[in-house]
Every structure is written in structure tokens, then in C-alpha cells.
Amino acid sequence: NLIRREDYVAPIFWIRTVDLCFDLDPAKTLVTSKMRLERNAAVAHGPLRLHGEELNLLRVLIDGESVSFRTEGHELVIDNVPDADFTLEIRNTCCPEKNTSLSGLYTSGGGFFTQCEAEGFRRITYFMDRPDVMAVYTVTMRADKARFPVLLSNGNLLETAELDNGRHLAKWHDPFPKPSYLFALVAADLVAREQRIRTRSGKDHLLQVFVRRGDLEKTEHAMNSLIASVVWDEARFQLPLDLERFMVVGVSDFNMGAMENKGLNIFNTSALLASPATATDADFQRIESIVAHEYFHNWTGNRVTCRDWFQLSLKEGLTVFRDQEFSQDMAATPSARAVCRIQDVRGLRARQFPEDAGSMAHPVRPDQYVEINNFYTATVYDKGAEVVRMYQTLVGRDGFAKGMSLYFERHDGQAVTCDDFAQAIADANPGSALSTRLDAFKRWYAQAGTPRLQARGHYDAATQTYTLALQQVNPPAPGQDGKLPQVIPVALGLLSPDGQALPLMLQGEDGAAGATDTERVLVLDQAEQSFVFVNVPVAPVPSLLRGFSAPVVLEDGLGDAELLVLLKHDSDAFNRWEASQRLALARILGAVRSGKPLTLDAAYLDAMRAVLRHPALEPAFKALALQLPDEAYIAEQLSDVDPQAVHAAVAAAQEQLAAALQADWVWAYDAHQVAGGYQPDPVQSGRRALSNLALSMLVLQATRSGDTVWPGRAYQRFKDAGNMTDRLGALSALVNAHAELADSALARFHSQFKHDALVIDKWFALQGRAAEQEGRTFARVKQLLKHPDFTLKNPNRARSLIFSLCMFNPAAFHRRDAAGYVFWAEQVLALDAINPQVAGRLARVMDRWTALAQPYRSAAREAIARVAAKPDLSNDVREIVERALAMD
Ligand code: ZN
């Protein structure tokens, strides 16, 4: 049951309109679907095939007459179909309250909700559940009025009515043809925050955010983010809101962050609700970006959608790029923009780089899948966004905007492919660095794996030339060797050793070109190319891949001296941060590789102190530069990974940074307190990030040295904090340092917030992520599985405890006694029986098992094999574990 991209065939029928009628009942919902179908004249004749899963079929009528049909696996097949247009009527039931997979129609907190992407609609009724079949939907819902007072679906409300037996009805119509994955329905007891806005075109719109009673005051930030998104998309890309009414709904049981259903976005409450008392700065930031992401899908995803699921990055890569650009524009200052970029790249390296090197490596446009839900990945989303960013780098910001206009001019209302997007951007920019190498550029969609970019510079004092030799290596990925060179835009600058930016004129250019530029973009499109800069007065320090201009691993061979120049002087904030990370990485890797204990040298510590004390750098930037690289990213640099050795080196670095800079951390903590009311803006949140980092360093150092003052102050702050960022910052400082006060703080936190599920998720997550010490964290997690508040059925809760341990706490998870892997196997199997999508995600923790050293490697293999041996595994988990075992 492998689905291949090359096997795509257009549908034999089109479904033009759908009239859906729901009689909602948690135990047995009756669905009647009346569709107008016509043959697709462009393809060969054949039977009508409809998808359906977990349905109870009651009847099938064509033009009002019953017809004979058969079922083949999950398909309903009708052989005798009229040649002309016809009406197909299907009646079936489904059982929302038993639907624990949270795909299709399900119940949560007593209400009805749907999730149809990618293939959930077939769990509601029989349909051609594929994105290239686009229909106009009319939806009638009938439900008990007292229990389900709010009835929502896509588009515009046509009518409401009272019915007998305390039931009521609502009828909705969505004028835009859409694929079934964008269908949505909500029937629940909800309240809404409402806002009317007038957009630039002069049209009025109603924005609504629906949540459970009691959560209304936590929707202000989401509403503000939505308004900002509408304004931004009109200004930046001339893309207006095309609906009279735009609705957002929060639900507590949800498999992912949110979903862009046309006019009716459905959100995980964790990606929607925020108040200063219950959400952190990071939550506020994440909500802003997810609200924007789903809103932007209205054009990039809904108006123009995907022809098939292999094209997923067409909408996801592009929409992530758009939400990243939005967040940068909202951040406003250059420094805050750089902080956004650094965070995005940190995420890419921690999640996508390992993916690209592991058992699930796949191109941005995959060639095959067993279960499409397994391909909502960091590669499709985040590497896909980097590919879109490279288009913009190659054609310029204005050129990219032109390309987007042409894309919508050509494809509005269509289901298209990544090739169509590439062609539109190229055609709008004839003669550009993109158009002249479009075929080579498109290898980014086809070749899996992270390219390595090697750079070596040579300065010739006699001729005042600097030769930069670039070489790319594309290591083989599963099923892909003999890869071709990719198109790599390399943004760069050259610095003199005292930090001056040097002009960048290439040999052979006339005097004008490059004579005064101090930053430019070279395009590497061969395996090897050299670039010769002229009129270079001194041997320069190269600042390469500025702003992370391509998703590659850069090997520039720079040593400490050069990195220190970049850390001190680079005008590119990203590379300045990168220098801080490279300095730390070199030291940690040196310790891990040599097996010797890590000792941080004075040069490094002085440089970090200089960053911390720097008069001009922003606190948010400092917090990022002083944070050590992720253990997952460090592990990627090694071939035989001993996670305990990596952790020991990072922990040692942390302790030495805490001790050596103790007085500076005291200063940083005191100097970055925030006065006045809470705002989640970049300035305030940057100050909080730095003061919380300082506090964690101070508590760590105090615990090691037996001092009780700072743990006491942290406890006080934990109790008195005016917002969740500071409260959780203080609590995590105590928990991670295993300070004596940690347990009583955890107990206090639980009793204070026991009625707020999203905060209790944080309470579980903090313990699941707590720095490991002699197995205490692991033991604690196993104990917490039995906590009355714990349940595997709620994905947020399952993630908060289990994923925190298995995914984000390598030292607690990778145990020499293999208990972590046994735990993982048990939890994957338990989750698979409830929710295969969530189980599939957890299964991916073992993607990189072949990079592990012994004894981890054998133990990991055994655990994976144990999962794979279970009969009746879901497609989701089976695909993951089989691919993992195939790496052996
Ligand atoms: Zn998306």
C-alpha cells in the first residue's frame, strides 16, 4: 500500500456541488450527502470510486434510484454510472464519541468538531476524498439546542430555525469550491469574541473567535493577531480577506496546532488561548504565528490548493515562509527580526536536519508514502519554507511579490503542483538568477538530505585578491545517490580583522558593480566554483551564508580567532549569533570526541561575558547567544553518538558558564527586570528571557556550591511573579537544578492551576524535560503516568509528559539500561490503539537510532523491532518503524 507520486491520475469524475445534512448525535450521527457529479472528459471511462472509513452505509441513490454497488477495501465502487451529469445521494452514520483518532467528526468537551486534512472527510461520509476534487458545499446541521447552541460550518450562514424536541438547525453555504480536506463543522456550547473590521478595499468583515465559556478573556491576543494578519497580507501581497465572516474555534483535543478550514479555522486551544497569568512569552509568540499561518492559508492553500498530497509543501512551505515573514515584520526592529530568524533556524537544525539524515529522510516533495499523515514534517514545512525563501533571495523581494501575483493570476481556484509555483515565480522574473537555472533550482524539491557547503578562502597580498573556493557535497539519502549539484545562494560579507566591512568587487566586473557593496549574494550552482574578489586591502574574515541564506551545513574552516572577530563585529546578527554557537560547539565536540572532561577556556568565557555585558546588543539576542546549542544538534555533528557523553559535556559547559560569569549573571538578572504592565512584545520578552536565563544560571551555581540565597530568591520570584513567563522561569530554574525547593514549588503550582488544562500541561512538560540526575527524572515521569490528571487520550497531555521525555530530554531517555526505549515502545503501542497520528509522531523519536553508539544502538533496535512485531499496527506507526528497521 505504497502511494507513488508518479502514479497520479486525474479523477474520472468531478463533484461540483455537495449538499450535506447532519443529524448530530454523539453516539450515532446521520449524514446525508447529495452530490452533483459529472464525468471528467479528459480521462478514460471507469467506475465511480468513493473513499469511506469507519462508516455505516445506509443507502446509495443515483438520480433518486437505488443502484448496485460493491466495496473494495475502504472504497465504495459503483460500476453503472450515467454518461451525463447525475445526482448521487448517500446516507450513512458514524460514531463521533468513539472517534479517539481525532480525525473526521469527533467529540471533545461535549461538543462536535472535525479535522479533515489530510484524509478525514472519508470518516464522515463516502466521497472522492482527494484535494483535486473541488466542490461547492451547502451544509445543514441539526442538533440539540441546549447542549449544542452554536452550529458552525464553512462560509456564510443562510438560515437558522427551531425544531421539535428541543433541537435547532443551521444552514451554511460556502461559495468557494474547495477540496474535502477544508470542510469543517462545529456544534458546541461556545462563546465568541467578535470584532468588525473594514479592509482596504472598503469591505466590512466580521471576525469571531469561539471558545468555551470562561476562556473569552484569553482570546484577545489571538484576535489581535488575526487582525494584524489580515492587514499584513493585504499590504505585503495584496491578498484581501475574501469572506464576510472569518471564524476561529478553539478545541482542547486536537492532533496538531491548527487547521485552515475555509472561513472556519479550528485551533488547538494551546495555539489560541493566552493570558499573561497562564501563557508564556513563547506561547504568545507561537499563537501569533499560528493564527497568521492559518489565516494566510486562505490564499496559499485554499484559493490555490494542492493537486495531490505529494505537493503538500506547495501550501505548507509557502505558508510557513509567509508566517515567518509576518513575524519578522511584526517584530519591527532589525534586532528583533534577527531574533526571529535565529529562532527559526535553531528549530530547523534541531528538527529538520536530523530528519534529513535519518530513516524518514524525504525530499520536500516526497516521491512515495504509506500514510500521508506521516509527511506533515519539518522537511515539508520548514525546509519547504527555506526553499521559498531562496526564491525570494534569488529574485529579490519585489520580484518575489510579482511572482506571487502571477501565481494567483494563473491558478486562483485551481489545484496545482510545486512546478506551477516555481514556473510562476520564474516567469515573473525573466533573466533573473532563478529563471536562468530553474531546472537546477528545482532539485531542492527532489533531493533529500542536507547539502554540505565547504568554503576555503585564500588571500594574496601581492595582488590584493581574495579567492573564495566553494564546493558542495550532497551525501546520499535513502534511495537517492548520485545527486546533482543544487543551487545555493550564498549571502556574504568580508570583514577586516578589526571588524570593518570591506567592499565586494568580483574580478572582471566593471568599477561600478560591487565597488561599494559590503554584502552580496553569490550563486553556487556547480559542484565547485571559485570567486575572486579584487581590491581587498587585507586578509579578510569571511562572513558566509548570512541570514542563513540556504538550508545547508556550512564548513568554512574558521578558527577561534576569526569566529571571535565575527562575534564582535559582524553586521549580520545571524552570523554573530552563529559565531557564539560555533565557539561553544567546538568546545563541546572536542570534549565528547576526546572523552576528556570539558574545561571552558578564558577566551571563550571572556567572549561570552562581553556579549552579556555588551552595551548595545539587545537582551533577546544575548539570551540566544548565551544559550548552548541543542543536544540534538550537537548529536548531528557526531557519527557514534553517546547521548550521555553529549549531555555530560553540555551540563559541564552550563555549570562553568554559570560559575565563571556568576557576578555577570547577578548583574543581568537585576538589570533586566521589567517594570510596568505585561506586554508580550520583543523588548519586554527579551528582557524576561535574559533575566530568566540568568536566574537559572544563578540557581544552578548556588545549588552546586551549597549556597541557599539564589534558590530562595527563585522561590520567592516563583511565588510572586506577575506573569507565567517569570513564574515558569523561576520554577524551571529550581526543577532543573534539583534545588531543594523544587518539590514544594511544583506542588504549589499544581494546586494553583489545577483547573487550567493548558497550565497543567506545562507542569507535566517541565517535569518531563527536567535535567536528568541519577535517573530521578525518568522515575518521576513513570510515576506521573499514574497521576489522576494524566491521560493518553488528550494529545496535549500525552505530548506534555511522554514527548517531553522521549523527544526533548535525551539524557533521561537514552539510558544505558535501555529502560527509556522500553518505555517508548510501551507508549507507542498504547497510543496507537487510541490515536495513530500521535503514535506515529512518537514513533519518530527513533529515526536516528543507527547514529547511536553501543549499547544504545542494539537496545534501540530491539525496541523498534518489538513495536514492529505487534500485529494490527496502524499504517502510521508501521511505516515509521519499518523505515527505521530498513536502516540497519
Ligand atoms: Zn499549514
Question: Could you describe the 3D structure shown?
Answer:
The mean pLDDT is 97. This protein has 27 helices and 33 strands. It has 888 residues and is of the alpha+beta class. Helix 1 packs across helix 2 and helix 17 packs antiparallel against helix 18. It starts with a strand and ends with a helix.
What is the strand and helix layout of this fold?
Elements lengths: L2 E2 L8 E11 L5 E11 L8 E4 L4 E7 L2 E2 L3 E3 L2 E4 L7 E9 L9 E5 L2 E5 L19 E10 L5 E4 L2 E7 L4 E12 L6 E4 L1 E9 L5 E9 L7 H18 L7 E7 L6 E2 L4 E5 L12 H16 L8 E2 L5 H20 L2 H24 L10 E2 L8 H34 L3 E2 L1 H10 L10 H4 L1 H4 L5 E9 L4 E9 L14 E8 L5 E2 L2 E2 L13 E5 L3 E7 L6 E4 L8 E3 L4 H10 L3 H22 L7 H12 L5 H8 L4 H6 L6 H18 L1 H10 L10 H24 L3 H12 L3 H13 L5 H12 L3 H13 L6 H9 L10 H14 L1 H4 L5 H14 L3 H8 L12 H13 L6 H11 L3
Parallel strand pairs: 2-12, 18-19, 19-21, 22-24, 25-33
Antiparallel strand pairs: 1-23, 2-3, 3-9, 4-8, 5-6, 5-9, 7-8, 10-11, 12-15, 13-16, 14-15, 17-18, 20-21, 25-26, 26-31, 27-28, 27-30, 27-32, 29-31
Helix pairs in contact: 1-2, 2-3, 3-4, 3-5, 4-5, 5-6, 9-10, 10-12, 10-14, 12-16, 14-16, 15-16, 16-17, 16-18, 17-18, 18-19, 19-20, 20-21, 20-22, 24-25, 24-26, 25-27, 26-27
Bound molecules: zinc ion.
Helix content: 40-55%
- Structural class, by secondary structure, is alpha+beta
Overall pLDDT metric: 97
Ligands, deduplicated: zinc ion
Number of helices: 27
Oligomer: single chain
Terminus-to-terminus distance: 22 Å
- Please provide the count of β strands: 33
Q: How are the strands of the biggest sheet laid out side by side?
A: 6-5-9-3-2-12-15-14
What Rg do the Cα atoms give?
28 Å
Please report which band the strand proportion falls in: under 5%, 5-15%, 15-25%, 25-35%, 35-45% or over 45%. 15-25%
Unreliable spans: none
Q: Main beta sheet: strand number and arrangement?
A: 8 strands, mixed
Shape: globular
